[in-house]
Inverse folding.
């Protein structure tokens, strides 16, 4: 698969086939992550592979997300989301936060080194470690797509970050970027319908 094809085929899925990702394939995917640009040239990224079901159960037991469509509806109504693709995506996604983390064949916790507290940054550069980490995550998603593997990212909410640090024994000078669930898509895995966009509507020549 060529690069553009892999980029175009990358889609978020939250329902996985039981098939394991072969170790050599996972290694290729993570190595692609390590090829991403990094602000300080150091690529100070670490990946915790959470494979133990009991550990994952412990994690999802405290997840800040409802498991039902009704619970998801209450949230999107509170957000004031109008009927449309975005609302549909949240209604699909929210109730699957537990199951996607529990059932994905590979759960990666990507961690990045921080030299100062990430929140309340003084300027945009202070967020460079976070930005670089996401370049790495996107490389992982595209490399995965090129192997027929899909996934989803979830940003830790509330006390999930602290729990991840404790459960995975992540050093305090490393931050967690997200839960990164990977696997082969289940046969009928739902893929969110995309908002239509024409590149001409996003490009400005010389000025906005
Ligand atoms: C920064 C970021 C945070 C996201 N957070 C979540 C999340 O908490 N839960 C979830 O199910 N999906 C999450 N997603 C996945 C988005 O819902 C998904 O990318 C979006 O619907 C577009 O669909 P696509 O990835 O198939 O293009 C996140 C994606 C990004 C880039």
């Amino acid at each position: 698969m060529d690069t553009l094809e892999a980029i175009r085929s990358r889609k978020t899925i939250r329902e996985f086939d039981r098939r394991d990702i072969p170790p050599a394939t996972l290694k290729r995917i993570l190595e692609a992550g390590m090829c991403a640009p990094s602000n300080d040239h150091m690529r100070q990224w670490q990946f915790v592979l959470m494979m133990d079901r009991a550990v994952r159960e412990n994690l999802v037991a405290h997840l800040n997300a409802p498991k039902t469509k009704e619970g998801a509806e209450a949230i999107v109504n509170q957000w004031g989301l109008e009927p449309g693709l975005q609302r549909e995506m949240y209604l699909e996604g929210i109730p699957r936060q537990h199951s996607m983390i529990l059932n994905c064949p590979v759960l990666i916790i990507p961690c990045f080194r921080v030299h100062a507290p990430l929140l309340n940054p003084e300027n945009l550069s202070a967020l460079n470690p976070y930005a670089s980490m996401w370049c790495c995550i996107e490389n992982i998603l595209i490399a995965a797509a090129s192997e027929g593997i899909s996934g989803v990212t979830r940003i830790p909410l509330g006390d999930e970050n602290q729990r991840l640090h404790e459960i995975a024994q992540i050093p305090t000078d490393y931050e967690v970027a997200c839960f990164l669930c990977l696997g082969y898509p289940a046969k009928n895995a739902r893929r969110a319908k995309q908002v239509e966009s024409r590149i001409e509507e996003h490009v400005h020549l010389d000025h906005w």
Notes: Residues 11-12, 14, 89, 93, 97, 152-155, 191-192 surround flavin mononucleotide (CB under 6 Å).
